[in-house]
Design brief:
This protein has a two-stranded antiparallel sheet. It is mainly alpha-helical. It is elongated, with a radius of gyration of 18 Å. It is built from 2 helices and 2 strands. It has one domain. The longest helix has 34 residues. A hairpin with a 2-residue loop joins β1 and β2.
C-alpha cells in the first residue's frame, strides 16, 4: 500500500480501490493518529501518577510526555492512514462505490 514512509499509493494494488476519494479525506486519519497518541500518553500519565503519588518526579514525566507526543505520531503515521482506510471500508463497503 505504501510507496514510501509518507506516501500511499493512489489505488489498492489488489482491488484497485481508490484511497483518496474526496478533498480532506485524510483528516480522519489525523484524528485516528491523535486519538492513539493521546490514549498512549493518558495511559502512561495515569500509570505514573498512580505509581508515584505523592512524590511524582515531574522532570522525567514531562520528558517522556514530550517524546511520546512528538515521536509517536510520526512513527504511527502510516498505520493511522491504514486504520482509517479500514474503518472507512467497514462502514462504506467497496460495492457502495462501484462506478464512482
Amino acid at each position: 500500500m505504501w510507496r514510501s514512509w509518507s506516501r500511499l499509493v493512489d489505488d489498492c494494488p489488489r482491488c484497485e480501490w481508490h484511497f483518496e476519494r474526496e478533498e480532506g479525506y485524510w483528516v480522519s486519519a489525523i484524528i485516528v493518529n491523535t486519538a492513539a497518541t493521546e490514549s498512549l500518553f493518558g495511559i502512561f500519565f495515569v500509570g505514573v501518577l498512580i505509581a508515584t503519588i505523592p512524590d511524582v518526579k515531574w522532570g522525567p514525566v514531562l520528558l517522556v510526555a514530550a517524546v511520546t507526543n512528538v515521536a509517536f505520531p510520526i512513527l504511527f503515521f502510516p498505520t493511522s492512514k491504514t486504520v482509517w482506510v479500514a474503518i472507512d471500508l467497514f462502514f462504506h463497503p467497496a460495492k457502495e462505490w462501484d462506478g464512482v
